[in-house]
Structure formats: structure tokens, C-alpha cells
Amino acid sequence: MLFAYKVPAVSRRNDRNRLEEQQFLASYDPSQFDRPSVTVDVVILTLRAGRLEVLLTQRKEHPFKGFWSLPGGFVGMQESLDEAAARVLREKGGLEGVYLEQLYTFGAPRRDPRTRVISVAYYALVEAGRIQEREGSALLRVVVPWEGEAGGPVEVEGGRSRRHPLAFDHAEILGMAVRRIRGKLEYVPIGFELLPERFTLRQLQQVHEAILGRKLNKDSFRRKVLASGRLEPTGELESGTGYRPAELYTFKKDRP
């Protein structure tokens, strides 16, 4: 005896919904809504001579021709935000496999005089030895005119302490990056990204002082970082110094 299979009502409803959605998408006109452009801007931070520096590029065209700006670019239609940021790092900074984190979205209506542009900012922390200043790019010192984590835009300066204005709202983006890393420094070991694989406690303290913008007590700092369990002694001493060599440490990565 044969039994007829009755299609459940829920299944018939789902099929009807899928068909209606396909018809809707086929007739959908995206031009009926204004669409802003989307870019990514990457704050590439490093440390040289105990100073926090940022990699900038000099604009070759309008708007803000001749101004320094953060490396950035428009997001491709088939590209995720993270992929676009990684591409900017690779193409404009020659960098891959570095610490990269999404920072904030900047969307003031008139932040770009060309058109409505929303920028998703990222920041990268890079050991100075990995950065190569290409033609049209330079590492400039970050000048933070405020203390703590409650400030606004920051400035940059180059040779002879000359201050350079930044294009668009990039001074605000850079200031946000400084606030972010200052806030995370105490509970996330991001400072190690600015150091070589083996480093001294003095070098680690210099990283913290450069980010925080203030001097730290040597003894208190060393007790704190050694008690954190994040450091592993190598049993080696630094070389090529004109003073008593210090012990070298590595960052203790989480093990499975």
C-alpha cells in the first residue's frame, strides 16, 4: 500500500520565502540610496631612541597635497575590512605578520572634502628594525600634548623638532590609537610587539615610558613585570655595551 507524502506547511512557507527573496534581490536597485565610500587607515607605531614614532606617507595629490597622512586606501567590493587593512600594511608599509587590531570607525560627514567617506581605522605595533622608510614615507615622532587616556588629537614632528600638520582627521585617529594602547598596556602584553625577540628590562621599561609619556620607578616596574609571569629569562646577557651587561628576557607566549 502506497502512502502519499505530505509536504509540511513550514517547508512550503520556507520555499515560498526563498523564491520571494530571490525575486526581490533580482529587482533590487541599490542606486536608490546614497552610498558613502569606505576606507581603512592604519596607524603604524614603533619605538626609536625611546620615542614613540608613527609611519606616515606624504600625499602627492589633492586634497591635502603635500601633507603627511596615515597609510590608507579604499576598501574593495570583494574585500573584508581586515583584508583591506592587511593590504595597506603590505603595500604601503612592506609589513606582514605584525600585531594589527581594529581601532575605531570615523564617520564625520565632512571629514573628507571629496565625498562622504567613512574610515575604519586600525593600529599596528611593529619593532623598529622591521620598518623600512620608502620613498614618500617617513617615521615621525608622536607628540602627545595631554596626559593619561582622556586626550584628543596629537601632533607629529620631524627633524629639528618641526611640527607637521596631518591630513584629514588623522591627528584625531592617531590620538585615539595612543589612548587605546595606553589603556591596554596594563592588562594586555602589547608592549612586547615593539621589542626584539630578546630584550632587557631596561628596554621594556623604555617602551612603557614612551607609550605612557612619563617616567616610571625602576625598582617598582621591575618587581611588577617579573611578578606578572609574562617574562622568561634566557640565561644570556646583552652584548656590545660599555657598561655591565643586563640579562636578556623573552616574552612567555601562552602554551596549549
UniProtKB/TrEMBL annotation:
<dbReference type="GO" id="GO:0016787">
    <property type="term" value="F:hydrolase activity"/>
</dbReference>
<dbReference type="Pfam" id="PF21906">
    <property type="entry name" value="WHD_NrtR"/>
</dbReference>
<dbReference type="GO" id="GO:0016779">
    <property type="term" value="F:nucleotidyltransferase activity"/>
</dbReference>
<dbReference type="InterPro" id="IPR054105">
    <property type="entry name" value="WHD_NrtR"/>
</dbReference>
<protein>
    <submittedName>
        <fullName>Bifunctional NMN adenylyltransferase/Nudix hydrolase</fullName>
    </submittedName>
</protein>
<dbReference type="InterPro" id="IPR036388">
    <property type="entry name" value="WH-like_DNA-bd_sf"/>
</dbReference>
<feature type="domain" description="Nudix hydrolase">
    <location>
        <begin position="36"/>
        <end position="169"/>
    </location>
</feature>
<keyword id="KW-0808">Transferase</keyword>
<dbReference type="InterPro" id="IPR015797">
    <property type="entry name" value="NUDIX_hydrolase-like_dom_sf"/>
</dbReference>
<keyword id="KW-0378">Hydrolase</keyword>
<dbReference type="Pfam" id="PF00293">
    <property type="entry name" value="NUDIX"/>
</dbReference>
<dbReference type="InterPro" id="IPR036390">
    <property type="entry name" value="WH_DNA-bd_sf"/>
</dbReference>
<keyword id="KW-0548">Nucleotidyltransferase</keyword>
<dbReference type="InterPro" id="IPR000086">
    <property type="entry name" value="NUDIX_hydrolase_dom"/>
</dbReference>
